[in-house]
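At your convenience, could you comment on the folded chain following this short note?
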Amino acid sequence: MHQTYVFMDAESSVRKTIDAREIEPRVRHEVIFGEFKKLNEGEMLDVIVDHEPDHLLMHMEHVGLPVDAERYSAEQLENGLWVGHFVKSAKKDAAETTVATDYERSRSYNESRFSAVPVFANDKYGVLLTYLKAGQFIPVHSPGVDLVFQVFKGVGTATVGDKEVKLKPGSLIIVPRGQKRGIKATTDMEGVHIVVPFPAEGDHEEVEKKLASGKYA
């Protein structure tokens, strides 16, 4: 039996916790989204997972759930699990979903792995700002999405298909779906990460497995 966690904060008096590990993978998102829909505006759903849950936020935005991205947060527990905090907001119209941000405002480095900050997602593509500390990497994987990645800051190397290329500020890589891609930072690195279409849950499995084992390729 999995341990039950209770989280408290001053902003949301009503919140529910769900342990995603206890849900069959084939219906996991359906159950999580169903529980989120039951919340009233301003209430929070805490989701316990075994990896950083940023992509769950993007998926919720992708399917049109009224999730407040500005109040989203995630934290790693002492046992290595993660919990994502998702707050229900009022449904936003098109004008309110327009995004204006920058690398400094969104900057979020993670001490243990690369950090991908969701910026925008719809049914056609997703945009993230990606931050890697020196020595961190996005493992080589071959998801079913096209990738456009441009470096804003820092240097490193990238795996693009069967090639290894050097990265520096201004470098641009474009990788078709199904082809290998991976990024390794030599210095602290920041870049914009565009994926087309929005990734499915299975597209992240190889990344999570390699991160857990510390393998780049």
